[in-house]
Automatic annotation (TrEMBL), chains A, B, C, D, E, F:
GO terms for molecular function: peroxiredoxin activity. InterPro entries: 4CMD/NDH-1_regulator, AhpD-like, CMD-like. This is Carboxymuconolactone decarboxylase family protein. It comes from the Bacteria. Gene3D superfamilies: AhpD-like. Residues 51-135 form the Carboxymuconolactone decarboxylase-like domain.
Length: 148, 148, 148, 148, 148, 148
């Protein structure tokens, strides 16, 4: 898996001087780096119901939080996978972020270990459901079971 | 912070042949390495109500899950912090595992970044409460604010 | 959107003297006013598994709680939408009550604002999923995107 | 532990004809049988903030749900303990209902088994916290550790 | 409903001397007794993503927890149903364990009573969704509505 | 209760051109209007652990979300109370926002109605705990029980 995310710690504290437009651009670039997608799908999906919510995802989620230095993106995405397993209900988001974890340099094995560990905190059903989501994502990424 | 956890990936798959006694010993050793405590407090606290539960924590939690190879302990503990923030109600366990994360080589900054990021998934109140727990743990570990 | 709910604050405290039959009738009337449906679907769906549960929904949910004075129905339904977003798992109920909110005089925009705000408390995935539910409900109600 | 609850299955379906006053009386009697308390504390505590909420607890919670035939009270209270452990945040209610479980004929051991089992579903922190609540309740009931 | 589970309290405390292999065998036997299935489906489903997780479900879930004496299996399964309703998101697991409850001697009515009661703790939407799951399980088990 | 919040709908869409500094100023002003506090406590409390998190609360929470037009602040705060009750674990935040609801023109009665209604969705224990929080807030605001 090529790590597309090596440049992620270049974020900086100069947020106070950024205009919203610059935050948005920063966020969209970071979303692309993390998820390997452009974010057009979420913009399109929200366009006729809550376009500003797509903007907040870009600006705050990716532009502010995920652009922060201080923690590498591989660890950030595994932490997100862990959190989503414990929430229990966020299957769609879990699917996206398992893909992001792989995209940011986490191995298939590391994703599986993170999910299994959450059985201790979020319970076995949450972990089991998440493993089935992971299985689908691995298949979509062409990751062979043997390759694990 | 000295990393006491560097030897953690030495776990192995030979679990099937282990007796319960050996799993228990493995788990208690791993708990000590991760938390920097002996686990006596939890044994004592549970002794007259559910002594077997302490055994399961050692055997399954630390002996099976946290002894697995495939993910380093620093990342494991940050994932646990993330999961506990999203659960929302596990303040006591969060306090223990923020300490474990520090003990396993995570920096104060990495713990804070992990918690802040969870505002996106578990909400701002859960993250805010967790930051106050972290503040207490950092103080107990003698980590100066400036040292961040 | 015609407000069918203007008469809702006519509820009263005389519950103590009501028979169960009267509470049931009050509840079914209030359910019809709020949801714009008769409640037959839920009665039919529960008829062969837990018919009393349908009765409790009518009697307690609609007859006791939603018949109380002291808070207008538009606000009640937006509060319910907020609560359901934070629960995270109640997609079916969310769909019904977004419809009820519209039926009780909330605008499409007010529903969207309520859901987006909950990203702060129940997290972004819960809010995002709820926005997609809202989009389906708006479409079913023939509310044009432009009409927002 | 004397089982005060043996008469609980005498509930009936004749609810439809009951006035609210009769439901309230039925509920208060059932609450006393289950919890071994009169319910005055909750009435007093809610008197100046939400007196009707105390009434709903009596009428609906104890008068409707807990007065139903079809499941014995000992099992009902263990099911409630299980549910409250999985909710994770309901410590006060858990304390009351562990007491109710004992009062309805569950043994100390059965309460502990129920809680430990929930580690599989609600996670270890929720079960561990609940065991500490149970320990306090057992002590308050004068149940010796050895007596287990 | 034939009670296949009457022998379940034959579990014992001699876990410390068991090898992992013996725990696994004990767990698989207990799983078969409780669920009426062999557990092959979960092994197959997890085989290429997390085979060890299937092993933990057998060893820890069924071999350790569900093999404990001190609480009969019928009550254990109703407690599990209660816990899963309150979690809210575990529909798949709920379906399996409603079947297990029936298999362990709980009646259709007892399952329904347990779920309805959880409306008090996990809310009405969680209970309502669970009743619909139960309806499907009852149909799959050929339990006639009238037979209730 | 004087409504300090009447000017809240003056927010606008011109966010894209705002610098972070301007968003921060807008957020702090809105926080003061809503909570009746300056926000200094949270800044001070977070200063040595996560000062940027205080900034995000101001900028995103109050500057972006709570500054949006399209929903009046009284309804916004009651929706927040509803959401926090359903989360179950956010007692501290609930205390702050019950105060904010009163500050934004909601009556004591409306707060109580909102909380009681959430018993249907988040369960009775969550609603009961929230009523006790509300009782403390009402007392701190000098709202007499009789004044309800």
């Amino acid at each position: 898996m090529v790590d597309e995310c090596s440049g992620t710690d270049g974020g900086d504290d100069g947020t106070a001087a950024l205009t919203g437009e610059a935050r948005l651009a920063r966020g969209r670039a970071q979303l692309a780096r993390i998820t390997g997608r452009s974010g057009e799908e979420v913009m399109t999906a929200l366009a006729d119901v809550a376009p500003d919510f797509a903007r907040y995802i870009f600006e705050f989620g990716y532009g502010d939080i995920y652009s922060r230095p201080g923690l590498d993106l591989r660890t950030r995405m595994l932490a997100t996978v862990a959190g989503l397993v414990c929430l229990g209900h966020a299957e769609r988001e879990l699917e996206v972020h398992i893909g992001s974890a792989l995209n940011c340099g986490a191995s298939r094995e590391e994703v599986v270990e993170t999910i299994m560990q959450m059985a201790l905190y979020g319970g076995f059903p949450a972990a089991l459901d998440a493993l089935f989501v992971a299985k689908r994502v691995f298949a979509a990424h062409g990751l062979e079971p043997d390759a694990r």
